[in-house]
Amino acid sequence: MKAHKVWTGIIVFVVLGAIAGATNPSKPASHATIPPPPVGRPAPPPSALQRSRARSILLASVDHYQRLLELGQAILGTQPYADGVQGLAAYSDPASAASRFRDYRKRPNPENDLSFQRAFARADHIFTADNEPQAISDWQADMSDSQSALVGWVQTAVGWQISQDSTVKLNAEAATVRAGLAKARRDALRATS
Predict the structure, then answer these.
(1) Fewest Cβ atoms nearer than 10 Å: which of 25, 113, 126, 146?
(2) CA–CA distance from 52 to each of 44, 47, 66, 109, 130 (Å)?
(3) Is the pLDDT of residue 132 over 50?
(4) pTM for the model
(5) pLDDT confidence tier of residue 130, bands split at 50, 70 and 90
């Protein structure tokens, strides 16, 4: 009976000691613990290679939209039709500016080209929330504005072809597209320098 009391006392002592060690953090545990992650440590800046990759993605998108404008301008030509009747008649001639511009609107379809959003997602993925420069978001806003301006230019070009819109308006729309793309180009360089 005495041995039973001794063993019971030892077991109670061990159990109480384990509980006290588990509830008292000042006492070291007998097993290794995983340290908590560092708090407040900023993410490292992207490497030069990562910044170069982001710059290439963003600038390629700007160049793409610049080419869309230039292609449309080349197809459109410099002489509008006298009126809507002539413009509509020109659609039946596949070599006419009206027919080629109609095809340009279908393919490459600049009015629905939102590829800058994919470029933004790809470049954005290179950065983290901690080290992403504001210029990346600025670039996205500039490209959205530029794409909208390109849509405006295309629609004005249709009116210009049939002499409903002036050359001054057409050129102003193109200048708006170019200015937006120039701003986006600056933001891409600022974001990745």
Answers:
(1) 25
(2) 16, 9, 21, 29, 19
(3) yes
(4) 0.77
(5) confident
Residues 165 and 159: their CA atoms lie apart, in Å, by 5
DSSP the chain: -HHHHHHHHHHHHHHHHHHHHHH-TTSPPSS--PPPPPSSPPPPPPPHHHHHHHHHHHHHHHHHHHHHHHHHHHHH-S---SSHHHHHHHTT-TTSHHHHHHHHHHTT-GGG--HHHHHHHHHHTTS-TTT--HHHHHHHHHHHHHHHHHHHHHHHHHHHHTTSS-HHHHHHHHHHHHHHHHHHHHHHHHHT-
Type of residue found at 81: Y
32: pLDDT strictly greater than 60? no
